[in-house]
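A favour, since you know our C-alpha cells better than I do. What I am after is a single protein written out in full by you. Could you add the entry underneath, on a fresh line?


***
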Amino acid sequence: MPMQDRAIRTRRKILSAAAEVFETRGYQSATISEVLKAAGVTKGALYFHFQSKEELAQGVLHAQGQGITLPPRASKIQELVDVVMLHAHRLQTDPMVRAGVRLSMDQTSHGLDRKGPFRIWAALARDLLDDARTQGELLPHVNTEDTADVLTGSFAGIQSMSHALTDYNDLMQRASVLLRHILPSVVNPSLIAHLDLTPNRGTAVYAEVHAQLAADAGHDNDT
C-alpha cells in the first residue's frame, strides 16, 4: 500500500475513534489516551496527524460535513429542504456527524472554537436562499441572511431537543415540522405545495446520493 494511502487510512481511523470518544465522553472529559486505545494506533501516528485534543476535535467538526454532495435541484428551496433533511438523516445514522454535532453544541467545551459549523451552515443556507430569490421563489420582504440565521439556530435547537428526548429518533419528524412552520413566511405560496417536506425526505435523498456514488464508482472502474 502506498505511504500516502496508508496515511489517509490512518487519519480516518483516528478521526473515527475520536468521534466515538467525543460522542460518548464529551470534549472536556475525553482524553488522547482514550482515542489512542479506540484507534489502536501509536502515539506517534496520532501526533503526526493531530497535535492536540483540540485539533482532533476540529478534525471531527470538519469531517461531519464531508463525503456527501447533494445534487443541485431546480428549486433552490427544495434543495435547502434536502440539505436539512439529509443532515437529520445522517445525524441518526452517522457516528461522525453525531460526534460533530455534540461538539458543536457542547457549551462546556472550554478552549474549543465551535463557531465553524454554525457559520458554514448559515452561509450555505444564505447562498441557497439568495439563489432562490434570483429564481423568484421568495417573498419580497425576505432578508436572506436573517432567515439563514433563524433556520440554522432553530435546527440546532430541535437537534438538541430531539437528542435529549429520544436520542434523535424523532428528529426527522421534528425537522419536517420546523420547515413547515418557517418556509411559509419566506417562500412564495405557489411553491409550498410542490415541496417535499415529508419526514422521510432525508432517507430518500440519502439513498439517491449513494446510488449516484455507486454508479460513479462503477463508471470509474469500467474506465
